[in-house]
């Protein structure tokens, strides 16, 4: 008689079997395409308690288990000021799924709730700084965040519509403030719908943002409130009814930007005009020019 599988085993098996095409394969594609993991890396997988970061944690565990290029993982969770119920949910989910958390605390929620302008941006920046610092202290050379394909598309449109800029979310980047540290996004090719499906299949309940701004959005009744990101999500859902491939088109577009068609652009933080290269036919500035 076969043994009954534990919730952890069912969740792990579903990643590489039931959701192999929609989760495992796109995850591996991103790791390989953007060269996100190297032998000997010590990666801090940042676990917020939400569905995306927990799916990332499980995928990274599976990759470590099956790779022939060994690397090390630390599962790093920051408590930015969760109430006791949310902290408990984070820890219970990690235990249920076999993710050994290293938890540290910060006062980010206390700080950002007192800020009127761009509190979510400030929260994200502060979170990243705390995570970099703690990961570096633990001997890690990379932090892995749970941003996925849908985040990439939404961020690109947010910048275009509300930031007056054509700017994407890169799959990896070097830290400016923590030398030797890198940020990687292994879910770069994974659609959010696939993560939601995996969550529902395993009957899991994860944290939302758990701050007062999310609560205000949920109380608005339209699922949007003051959140521009939610507004973009709704817009994309509407557009996909007419063009199911619209997100793929945007994703391909950010991989093939044609700078010679733009009247102006930035490179390494420095601004350039089409006229800077038009008459001379010069190439782009050399790597390192205009670094901040």
Fold topology:
Elements: H1 7-16, H2 20-33, E1 42-46, H3 51-66, E2 72-79, H4 84-97, E3 101-105, H5 108-112, H6 119-137, E4 142-144, H7 149-162, E5 172-174, E6 182-184, H8 192-201, H9 212-219, H10 228-242, H11 246-254, E7 264-267, E8 270-273, H12 274-278
Parallel strand pairs: 1-2, 1-4, 2-3, 4-6
Antiparallel strand pairs: 5-6, 7-8
Helix pairs in contact: 7-10
Structure characterization notes:
By secondary structure, the protein is α/β, with parallel strands linked by helices. It has helices at about 5-15, 20-35, 50-65, 85-95, 110, 120-135, 150-160, 190-200, 210-220, 230-240, 245-255, 275-280, and strands at about 40-45, 70-80, 100-105, 140-145, 170-175, 180-185, 265, 270-275. The chain has a six-stranded mixed sheet with strand order 3-2-1-4-6-5, with helices on both faces. A hairpin with a 7-residue loop joins strand 5 and strand 6 (about 180-185). It is globular. The chain starts with 6 loop residues before the first helix and ends in a 14-residue tail after the last helix. The model is unreliable at about 215-225 and about 290 (pLDDT under 50).
């Amino acid at each position: 008689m076969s043994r009954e599988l534990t919730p952890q085993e069912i969740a792990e098996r579903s990643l590489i079997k039931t959701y192999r095409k929609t989760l495992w394969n796109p995850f591996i594609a991103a790791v390989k395409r953007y060269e996100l993991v190297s032998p000997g890396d010590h990666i801090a997988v940042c676990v917020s308690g939400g569905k995306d970061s927990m799916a990332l944690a499980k995928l990274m565990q599976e990759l470590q288990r099956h790779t022939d290029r060994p690397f090390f993982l630390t599962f790093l969770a920051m408590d930015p000021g969760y109430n006791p119920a949310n902290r408990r949910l984070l820890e219970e989910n990690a235990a249920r799924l076999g993710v050994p958390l290293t938890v540290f605390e910060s006062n980010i929620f206390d700080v950002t709730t007192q800020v009127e302008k761009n509190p979510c941006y400030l929260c994200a920046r502060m979170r990243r700084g705390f995570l970099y610092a703690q990961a570096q202290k633990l001997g890690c050379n990379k932090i892995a965040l749970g941003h996925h394909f849908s985040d990439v598309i939404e961020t690109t449109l947010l910048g275009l519509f509300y930031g007056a800029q054509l700017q994407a979310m890169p799959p990896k980047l070097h830290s400016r403030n923590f030398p030797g540290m890198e940020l990687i996004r292994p879910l770069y090719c994974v659609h959010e719908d696939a993560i939601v499906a995996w969550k529902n299949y395993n009957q899991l309940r994860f944290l939302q943002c758990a701050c007062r701004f999310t609560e205000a959005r949920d109380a608005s009744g339209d699922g949007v409130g003051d959140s521009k990101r939610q507004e973009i999500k709704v817009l994309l859902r509407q557009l996909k009814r007419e063009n199911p491939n619209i997100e793929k088109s945007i994703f391909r577009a950010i991989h093939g930007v044609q700078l010679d068609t733009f009247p102006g652009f930035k490179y390494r933080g420095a601004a350039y005009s089409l006229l800077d290269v038009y008459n001379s036919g010069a190439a782009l500035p050399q790597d390192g020019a205009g670094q901040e």
